[in-house]
Structures are given as structure tokens and as C-alpha cells.
Amino acid sequence: MIITVGRQIGSGGHNIGKKLAEELGYKFYDMEILALAAEESGFDRKFFEKNDEKHGFFRSIFGGSVLTGAMMNYADSSASSLSQEGLFRFLSEAIQKAAGEDNCIFVGRCADYILRDFPNVVSVFVTADYEERVQAVMQRKEMTREQAEKHIREKEDSRASFYNYYTGKTWGHSASYDLCVNSSKLGQDKTVEYIKQFVANIAK
After folding, report:
1. How are the residues of the chain apportioned to helix, strand and coil, as percentages rounded to the nearest 5?
2. Which one, of 23, 9, 2, 14, lies nearest residue 194 by Cα?
3. N or C terminus of the chain with fewer C-beta within 10 Å?
4. For the whole model, what pTM was predicted?
5. What pLDDT does 56 receive?
6. Contact 170, 176 (CB under 8 A)
7. Is the dihedral of CA 134, 178, 17, 117 positive or negative?
């Protein structure tokens, strides 16, 4: 089984996905998938982290920055791959490779679309009430309310642009996922149980 988790900022999607993986005994990939993509591509992991879930990153990075040695070597051997699509391909290959090896839970990064042709994939989107999300970001990031609201707005705009561009679907829209759940209604622990039951019924 493969479970993909899309999430709003401050919704607890990462924690829910991680706890779900622990209880089910599945491999868990959030930022971890960036390390795999870096290993597969030869690019520095920091490059993937800096541009995580952003559309248009190559324009901003290569437009005015110095390439690392690894990037220069890769550019010399395969310049045609230095594009948004090239980086997304590395990410896709890393996700597909991991999904082919074990039961997994992937958080974000268009995994639901990348694994669309794999059997037994369940896509989930986690949302939460706005005020709760703002408070969560304020606490986690030690931000003022104004800073937290700006952070949410900018990060979600970036995620939506990235997801919509590569999938042709709409980020956060119920039609894009098998299950959408508001973690504010149940709390994170019961949301994990709810998703477990949903997945178990599909797996029967």
C-alpha cells in the first residue's frame, strides 16, 4: 500500500503522516525523499531543499546564482536536463523507486500524481481550521500573527503553483484526492485512526 498526504500549512499533515507510518509499519518520506532525489541526480541535497515544492525554481536559481561543482559537471554532460522538468523528473524517479520497494507514506511533492499508475495508492489531503493553523505556525516558528499569516499565504501559494503545474489538478480541491479530512474536527490522533480505517476498507 502507498499513502500520499497533501497538507495545508499548520494542519499537522506531517505529524499525521509520520504517526500513520509508525502505526502501520510503513516507510515514511517527507524531506527524506529529497535526499534520495539528490543521491539519484548527483545534485547537492541543499539544492533540492532550497527549492522544495516550488514552481519556477530553475529560473530563480540559475538566473543569478553560481552553480556548484556537481551542477556544473551535470550541466556539461546533460544540459538539456537543466530545467524545471529535469528536476521534477529526478524527484519523480526517487519517489517511484521508493514506492516500488516497500509500503510507504509520502508527504507532498505531487506523489499522488507521480504514483498515479501504481496499484494500491490512496491519496489524502489534510486541512484544518484557519485559526488553528495560524496558532500552530506561530508556536512552531516563533512568529507573530502577522508573520505566521504571511508564511501560510506564501507557502501555500508556492505549493499550489507547484502541484497545479505538474499535475493538471487543483491543490487542496476535493476532486484531486481520495479523501480530504479536517484535523481540527478529530484532532491529530483520531485523524490518524480515521485514515487507517479508510485505507483498511480500500485494501479489503
Report:
1. 60, 10, 25
2. 23
3. C
4. 0.85
5. 58
6. yes
7. negative
